[in-house]
Design a protein that fits this description.
The complex is a heterodimer of chains A (126) and B (176). With 126 residues, chain A is of the alpha+beta class. Chain A has helices at residues 5-12, 64-77, 82-86, 90-97, 104-125, and strands at residues 27-34, 39-47, 53-61. Chain B has 176 residues and is mostly helical. Chain B is built from 7 helices and no strands. The model of chain B has no long low-confidence stretch (mean pLDDT 91). Classes of the chains: A alpha+beta (126), B mainly alpha (176). Chains A and B meet through strand 1 and helix 5 of A and helix 5 and helix 7 of B.
């Protein structure tokens, strides 16, 4: 199967790969996995007091589409408010990366990851 | 001839169980392979030859499924109405995922270790032990008809099996 140019670009030059301190109260961590392919994805956001995502990092073990999806999401959510980021849809990711139908689940994984990170951050503020 | 309405266990004359007698499985598989040998169909019509190809595909699928502990577990659940094959998005315990992340990081580091072979060897043992543990857990849950928990265990097995394959791939790479 041929990957789109955008997938290859993110795969070869992934943006924002890394790790933040999961204990930091201003950091939200989302961990998700896809059993069918054994992919594991960690997406973290650093949120300002105003509720704006200042920074985002990810680490993904998986196929090119999963890496590209999470890389793209970290690029997109920077500067977004939590509410804006929570509205991100997997279909937007899939469209941007021109994912074929069999790889749509990779974009779902990335959407789940950002949602999990937001939930984790909100839980910490309670 | 083969009845493709049978389940894989019936076809291969094995009890429906997570424990499978490998010797019996291969023996019965070879027996059926002989019955379906293309030479026996060479003189028959195209329709019958096509049928024999379908039977062979069914038999091969049955054998592959029952031979692999993961596929066997998934098939057992499938027979109970649980489809763990086509699910895409499921919630997994964060601690389990964290552990998977860590093991994959260890694999990455093992490749560049001073002694990559021994680093890989100990990682491989660790992962195999965890996989064995999950298989035992699956069997206990399956026997107890706790199919929901058993499906959760199958998902964990999928992550660990994938990791085993990745470790083996890296080992092969290092040998070359």
């Amino acid at each position: 199967m041929a990957y789109s140019e955008k997938v290859i670009d993110h795969y070869e030059n992934p943006r924002n790969v890394g790790k933040m301190d999961a204990q930091d109260a201003s950091v939200g961590t989302g961990m998700v996995g896809a059993p069918a392919c054994g992919d594991v994805m960690r997406l973290q956001i650093k949120v300002s007091e105003e509720g704006v995502i200042e920074d985002a990092k990810f680490k993904t073990y998986g196929c090119g589409s999963a890496i590209a999806s999470s890389s793209l999401v970290t690029e997109w959510v920077k500067g977004m408010t939590l509410d804006q980021a929570a509205e991100l849809k997997n279909s937007e990711i899939a469209e941007e990366l021109a994912l074929p139908p069999v790889k749509i689940h990779c974009s779902v994984l990335a959407e789940d990851a950002i949602k999990a990170a937001i939930t984790d951050y909100k839980d910490k503020q309670k | 001839m083969i009845d493709i309405k049978q389940n894989y266990f019936e076809l291969l004359a094995l009890p429906v169980s997570f424990q499978v007698d490998g010797v019996q499985l291969s023996a019965r598989y070879r027996e059926l392979q002989k019955v379906l040998h293309p030479d026996r169909f060479a003189h028959l019509s195209e329709r019958e030859r096509r049928l024999s190809e379908q039977y062979t595909a069914f038999l091969n699928e049955a054998q592959t499924t029952l031979k692999s502990p993961l596929k066997r577990a998934q098939y057992l659940l499938y027979l109970q109405g649980w489809d763990t094959l086509s699910e895409t998005s499921v919630t997994m315990e964060p601690t389990f995922l964290m552990r998977q992340m860590m093991l994959r990081e260890e694999l990455e580091e093992a490749g560049s270790a001073v002694d990559p072979e021994s680093a890989l060897g100990s990682l491989s043992e660790e992962v195999s032990a965890e996989l064995r543990g999950q298989r035992q857990q699956f069997e206990a849950q399956y026997i107890a008809s706790e199919f929901d928990s058993a499906a959760g265990t199958v998902r964990k097995m999928q992550f660990l099996e994938k990791l085993v394959l990745e470790i083996e791939a890296l080992e092969d790479e290092l040998l070359d």
